[in-house]
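Q: What would this chain look like folded?
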Amino acid sequence: MIKNLLVGTFLVCLFNMESFGQYSKGMIRMEVASMKMNGEDAPPEMASMLGNMQVLVYSNGVIQKNVMSMMMMKNSTIMDSKKDSVFLYMDMMGKKYLIVDQITKPAKDSVKNNEGQNINILEFPDDTKVILGHQCKRVDLKMKAPVLQNAGSDQSNEITIKTYITKELNFDPSFISQNNRTIKLEGTPLEFSMLMGAGSFQLELQMVAKEIKAEINPDDLLPPSGNFKRYSMEEFQNEIAKMGR
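A: My prediction, written as structure tokens:
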């Protein structure tokens, strides 16, 4: 159970590691709307651990910061659209990791077009809803996520994400990404449900936007405080794999 939970946690915390273009200005706050394990309501102990999961998105139009907090973990991704740089700060179970990515032009163009990423995007133009005053349409994503070494035979690296996207906002959708590649989406997700895992552990989380603001405090874009040790993505994956043994 602990090993599978670590695998699920690893998939949740791997935010996007690419950034592009000009962003909308403001803030989005998302919270858990529902949680299911193996198709049924999650047991109370899991609901108490993951039910307080929250995603915050801040942007001044050039820099976007995504903050995801759950259980004993808080992760902040800071993307600079002018410098094409990404800083991923991960505070997990008392340890602090910093993963830095600098994007080159060819790699950026390739990722922007979803090339070589095994991401399937399905649109449902007739499935729409209004979320916090914004018209949204359904878009489903299926992708491959990183597989941890020694993670167990019941781990699946396929993730399905059901989203409701509005074209009225232009935040980078990296806060729903479950791997280290961006997703080309026309608009901003204000609701998403992700299904991950296999075998005896299949978790589905539904996140919905609860608040949108047009203004932010400049301090909201600052890096988190603390001594973060710098890792490559490979080094970080090896570290997490050890924790799941």
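Confidence is low (pLDDT under 50) at residues 1-20, 104-116, 148-154.
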